[in-house]
Amino acid sequence: MKGIRREEEKRRSTFTRRALALGLGQMALFGVLGTRLYRLQAEEGDRYRTLAEENRLSARLIPPPRGRILDRNGQVVAGNKLNWRVLLVAEQTQDVGATLETFSRIVPLAEHERARIERELRRRRRFVPVMVREFLSWEEMARIEVNAPDLPGILIDVGTTRLYPEAEHLAHLVGYVAPPAERDMDGDPLLELPGIRVGRAGLERFHDQVLRGRAGAVQLEVNAVGRVIREVERREGVPGQDVQVSVDAELQKAIRGKIEEGTSVVVLDAKNGEVLAMASQPSFDPNLFNAGVSAAQWRQWTANRSTPLINKATNGLYAPGSTFKMVVALAALEAKVIAPGERVSCPGYFDLGDTRFHCWSRYGHGGVDMRAGLKYSCDCYFYEAARRTGIDRIAAMANRFGLGVDLDIELPGTRKGLVPTRAWRQAQGKPWNLGDTIVHGIGQGFYQLTPLSLATMAARLATGRAVQPHLTRSIGGRPARGGRPEEWPALGIPERDLRLVREGMWAVVNEAGGTARVARLPEQLGVLAGKTGSVQVRRVSREQRERGFKVENQPREWRPHALFVAYAPYDNPLYAVSVVVEHGMSGAGAAAPLAKEVMVEVFNRFRATPGQRVAEAGR
Amino acid sequence: MSGTFERRLLTRDRGNGWLQKLWLIPWSFVLLLCAVAAVGYVALYSAGGGPEAYAAKHAIRFGFGLVLMLGIALVDIRFIARFAWLGYLGGLALLVLVLLHGNVGKGAQRWIDIGPLQLQPSELMKIMLVLALAAWFQRASWERIGNPLFLVPPAIMVLVPVGLILKQPNLGTGLITAIIGGAVFFAAGVRLWKFALILAGAGVAAPIAYEHLHDYQRARITTFLDPESDPLGAGYNIIQSKIALGSGGLWGKGFLQGTQGHLNFLPEKQTDFIFTMLAEEFGLVGALTTLGLLALVVLFCFAVALRCRHQFGRLLAVGLGTNVFCYVFVNVAMVTGSIPVGGVPLPLISHGGSAMLTTMLGFGLLLSVYVHRDAEFGPARD
Question: From B218's CA, which of A214, B86, B127, B364 has a CA 20 to 30 Å away?
Answer without folding.
Answer: B127
